[in-house]
# Entry
Amino acid sequence: MQREKKPFGTGDASFLAAGGEVGLRRLVDSFFDRMGTDPRFSAIYALHPDDIDVSRDKLARFLCGWLGGPKLYNEKYGAIGIPRVHAHLPIATAERDQWLDCMAASVAEQPYANEFKKYLMEQLYVPAEAVRRRCAVD
# Structure
């Protein structure tokens, strides 16, 4: 019996399209590795705490729940409001765009379906823009 394919954003369809927790941790590792080595992203990398492993864990856990999988962030760190937890940072359009460009390059190298890559980047713009609006005036 074949399982019906749900559209992205429905139930756990996006989480599964990303390869589950393993796939999302691979994406997050690529993202932070790129951010830490590519000078184009040094400004946003500098906004992170010295213990980057905690940031990696938080982003991976957040993405799991945000994409319809298990609420791993909440289990370990409690409730999260993305704009609120970034409110202390100077994030303007340039920083938002650096974050999105770094993520887009990391998403592009993942073995995700092209439709999911496009969908994921469209969805990631929403919290990135919410953080920009909350954190800085351009």
Observations:
- The chain is about 65% helix and 0% strand.
- The chain has one domain: 13-135.
- Helices lie at 13-17, 20-37, 42-45, 52-66, 72-77, 82-85, 93-108, 114-135.
- The mean pLDDT is 93.
